[in-house]
Structure formats: C-alpha cells, structure tokens
Amino acid sequence: xxxxxxxxxxxxxxxxxxxxxxxxxxxxxxxxxxxxxxxxxxxxxxxxxxxxxxxxxxxxxxxxxxxxxxxxxxxxxxxxxxxxxxxxxxxxxxxxxxxxxxxxxxxxxxxxxxxxxxxxxx
Length: 122
Hints:
The chain is mostly helical. 75% of the residues lie in helices and 0% in strands. It is elongated.
C-alpha cells in the first residue's frame, strides 16, 4: 500500500484542495495571513500523514507524525472559524469543511490508536 491509498490522506487531500479553491475568494489583504495560514495547515495534514507512513517501522515516530497531522487538522479548524467569522465564507461552506475536517481527525486518531494495522511492528 502507498500512503496515497490511505483514507485519511485521500480525504485530507480533497479537503485541502477545496479549502485552496475557496480561499482564492478571500480578500487580497489576507494573502499573507489567513489565506496563507489556512492553506499551509490544511496541506500539512497530508504531508504529515505521508511522513508518518514512511516512518511506520518506528511506531513512536509514526504516532508522533500522526499527532502532528492531527494538530494541523485542528489548526485548520481554527482558521476556518476565523474565515466564517470574518465573512469570507458562508456558514454552509464552513459547516461542510468542518464536517470533513472532523472526519479526517477521526481517521487520523484511528491510525494513532491502531498503528499495527498500518504496518507498524509493535
């Protein structure tokens, strides 16, 4: 299996791309703040999953990178809250993105709690 086949990676990647396209509508004055931050954190979810998968021979490293991924997912949720509060996105987009982000979080936590199912030698 490749890391690209992991459900958490796939769903995280799709969400990051949706956020990217929606953030193109944010005001120009947010380019180097909210827009940049929400794009970075949402992309980092997948980047950390891929790093974790490559470190699966070392369970503690695997779990550590997955907790980084979970933290980035939580950061993304915070930026989404700012985006809706600043009226850069509708409540409908916010609700949809949050639902997807929470699902990604559950998948990441499943991996954290079941490293043996992902090739870790326990």
